[in-house]
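sanity check this fold:
=====
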Amino acid sequence: MHLDAFLWLFLPVFVAGGSALLSFYIMQARMEVALAKERESLAEARATITSHKVTLEERIKATEEATRRRALDEFMQDFRVEERSYVRESKSLSASKKSMIMQERLFFRNIPLSNWIEREMIVEEGADLDRVPHSSVFTGPAIPQPEGRLPISKMIEEFPAPAPVREKPAVLGPRVVAFGAQ
C-alpha cells in the first residue's frame, strides 16, 4: 500500500510539474511572438524616423538654398548699368562720318563701380558731296603769275578756308537698365 500511496501522492506533483513545464513553454512561445511583433514595430518606427530625418534634411537644404538664392537675387538687384548715348558727327573736307557713341557705367546702389566705358558704332560713313570742290585743281584754268606773288598764294585765296568743324555731342537721353530679377 505504500506504493499506491506514494503513487497517489507523487502523481499530482508530476502532473503539476508537467503542466508547469507545458505552461512555461507556451508562455515562452508567446513571449517570443510578442518580442517579434515589438521588434517589427520598432523597425517600422526606425524606418519612419529615418525617412522623416532625410526629408527634414532635404527641406532644410532646400530652404537654405532658397534663402541663399533670394539673398543673391536681392544683392544682384542692387547692381545696375547706366547707359547713355549720343550721336557724333565728324566732318572733314572730303568725307563725313556719323557715329553713335554708347557709354555705360556699372553702379552698386548709388555708388559707381566703374568709369564710363565708351563704344563707338559707325552709323553712316561717306563723302560729303556739298563740301567737295567740283572742279579739279589739275584741269582748271592756269593761274596767272603776278610779279611779286607766288602761284600758291593766289590759289589759297581762290579757295575759301573751311570753317573749323566742332563736334557737338547730341544727348539722346540716359537709359537706365538694371539686370537681375525684375
